[in-house]
Amino acid sequence: MMEYRILGNSGEKISAIGLGAWQFSESWGVLDYEVAKQVIEEAYLQGINFIDTAIVYGKGRSEEYVGRAINELKIQDDVYVATKIPGEMLSEHDVLLALKGSLRRLRIDHIDLIQVHWPPIWNNIPTCTYMRALEKAVFFGMADYIGVSNFPPILIEEAQSCLAREEIVSVQVRYNLIEREAELEILPYTQATNMTLIAWSPLAKGALTGKYRAGKTPIFNDVRASEPIFIEENLKAIEPLLQKIEELASKYGKTPSQIALNWLLNSSDNVVPIPGAKNREQVRENAGAVGWSLTRDDWLDLAFISSSIIIKRSLAIP
Length: 318
Fold this sequence. Notes:
This protein is α/β, with parallel strands linked by helices. Helices cover 38% and strands 14% of the residues. The protein has helices at 33-45, 61-72, 92-106, 127-139, 153-161, 186-193, 232-252, 256-265, 280-287, 296-307; strands at residues 4-6, 13-15, 19-20, 50-52, 80-85, 111-116, 143-149, 168-174, 196-200, 271-273. The strands form 2 sheets. An 8-stranded parallel beta sheet has the order 3-4-5-6-7-8-9-10. The chain starts with a strand and ends in an 11-residue tail after the last helix.
């Protein structure tokens, strides 16, 4: 049975496991709408009510698929839709235009959670410009709540200081058993401020499923083709962790993915992982990460093993 967590200080209940929708794009290759609809339908049947998408996922394709599916399935009022505006669309007029486009593609009259996808580091747009524009969008009823993604705490603080009426309810960052940098600053910050930490890439783009191992360097035709974690030396570094995950999967009668997701859920009660899924089976597998719990000792064993892993991203450049 699905578990639910409160989104920041909003009072809204979202599923402890969400559905990431990046896969409905060329980056991951799920381009068949009927497949996307099946994934979304299965998520709903499993009690997953939190769907996270973004404008840049397939240049709007992901939003279109999500919107069409929830419309045809008649579940618009039963799911919590989050989307994201990219950093280059954060001038005041672009924020409102981007939201209009998202609302059209998603076929809804308001966005439950609107997030800044990343800071406008190439466009030099002042923080208060886009944060006040987002607050205006909430006032106009275009969105209910505001979140940020890929922001460090110091910039989150600045962003929050720009808001007069609203507050930031969530921070979305990369967080998984291999890549735990979020624990250094982001996780403690969200815990102290009662924000939800939405964990993207909670399975490290599939590296934690155990399907890809050292000595069998995988060849990808999707976004993982340039992902440093799949370089042979990095795969060797994570092998002890994968072996422990498989040992625990056997012990609990779960899959490696479920072990990895459950570890995240038990890291803090404000963490909500959003794994993607390419078919119904993967949705059911992700949903099966709740309703049970690793023991304290098993959680600690995974934490200790993973803490020694260093992913050498510089190796991505020959």
